[in-house]
């Protein structure tokens, strides 16, 4: 009877052990499933947050781009406004110097300053006329020769430009303005060398044609000023240099 009781106890323990193992396995499976679900939820949440961050970045980039566009547009408007203000100021200067000329028509300086403002606006014809009038009033006006020479070179009349710049250098030197003298002298050398550099006949004819056209375009009444032997190392083959002054 004691053996029977022992067997029953053993069977009961085995049964309880099996039940306990099953319960533990069930709990383990439930725990793993729960962890998987939590992990999936966490990954989903992370992905959602990542998408939101990315969308915010894209929105920020878009807004930043729009801000940059607006900033560029603002600077463009500001630049255009400055240009307009500069043009208005230059036109006002022209009117002021015109008034000075009406008051004192013998003022070479007023003509020269008005010419500078015409040149600033890109009005080369108006500038040339004023520089020429300034030289009519003062044939030793070095700056007027200098600036007129630059315009002549720009419109292709290098021969006349060289003559103007040589005269500018001469009068700068006589007036003790060595820095301006060197600038004008170097420019005259540069334009002289360009004009007399080896070129084919066709190119030379084109240059001469341009010079003639430029001279016709700027053929306002001018006096002839003759200067002989300004610079021995630079003079043309002609003994004297005739220049519109």
TrEMBL record:
InterPro entries: TPR-like_helical_dom_sf, TPR_2, TPR_rpt, Ycf3
Coiled-coil boundaries: 21-94
Repeat positions for TPR: 108-141
Record-linked Gene3D superfamilies: Tetratricopeptide repeat domain (1.25.40.10)
One CC-aspect GO term: cell outer membrane
UniProt keyword terms in alphabetical order: Coiled coil, Repeat, TPR repeat
BP GO terms, sorted: receptor-mediated virion attachment to host cell
Domain of life: Bacteria
Segment forming the signal sequence: none
UniProt xrefs under PANTHER family: TETRATRICOPEPTIDE REPEAT PROTEIN 6, UDP-N-ACETYLGLUCOSAMINE--PEPTIDE N-ACETYLGLUCOSAMINYLTRANSFERASE SPINDLY-RELATED
Name of the protein in question: Tetratricopeptide repeat protein
Organism: Crocosphaera watsonii WH 0401
Organism taxonomic ancestry: Bacteria, Bacillati, Cyanobacteriota, Cyanophyceae, Oscillatoriophycideae
């Amino acid at each position: 009877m004691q053996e029977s009781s022992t067997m029953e106890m053993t069977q009961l323990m085995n049964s309880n052990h099996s039940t306990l193992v099953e319960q533990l396995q069930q709990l383990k499976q439930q725990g793993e499933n729960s962890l998987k679900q939590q992990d999936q939820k966490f990954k989903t949440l992370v992905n959602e947050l990542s998408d939101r961050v990315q969308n915010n970045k894209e929105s920020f980039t878009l807004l930043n781009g729009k801000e940059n566009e607006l900033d560029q547009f603002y600077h463009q408007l500001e630049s255009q406004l400055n240009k307009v203000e500069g043009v208005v100021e230059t036109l006002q200067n022209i009117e002021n110097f015109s008034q000075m000329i009406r008051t004192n028509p013998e003022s070479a300086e007023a003509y020269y300053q008005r010419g500078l403002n015409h040149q600033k606006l890109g009005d080369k014809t108006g500038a040339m006329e004023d520089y020429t009038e300034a030289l009519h009033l003062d044939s030793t006006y070095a700056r007027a020769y200098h600036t007129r020479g630059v315009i002549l070179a720009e419109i292709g009349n290098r021969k006349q430009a060289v003559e103007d710049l040589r005269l500018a250098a001469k009068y700068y030197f006589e007036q003790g303005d060595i820095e301006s003298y060197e600038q004008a002298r170097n420019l005259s050398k540069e334009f002289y060398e360009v004009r007399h550099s080896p070129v084919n006949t066709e190119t030379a004819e084109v240059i001469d044609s341009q010079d003639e056209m430029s001279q016709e375009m700027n053929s306002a009444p001018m006096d002839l000023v003759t200067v002989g032997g300004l610079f021995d190392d630079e003079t043309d083959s002609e003994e004297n240099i005739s220049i519109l002054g």
